[in-house]
Amino acid sequence: MERVLNIHIEKLPEGVYLATSDSIQGLVA
Predict the structure, then answer these.
(1) Residue ranges in the chain whose pLDDT is less than 70
(2) pTM
(3) Which helix (H) or strand (E) covers residue 12, if one does?
(4) Rounded to 5, what percent of the chain is helix, strand, coil?
């Protein structure tokens, strides 16, 4: 999962918050 987040962050440097929100929702779910 960490690798996936890193990829999203690299592709969407401005969407770091979006990637973080997705990870938080996944952990909560």
Answers:
(1) 1-29
(2) 0.19
(3) none
(4) 90, 0, 10
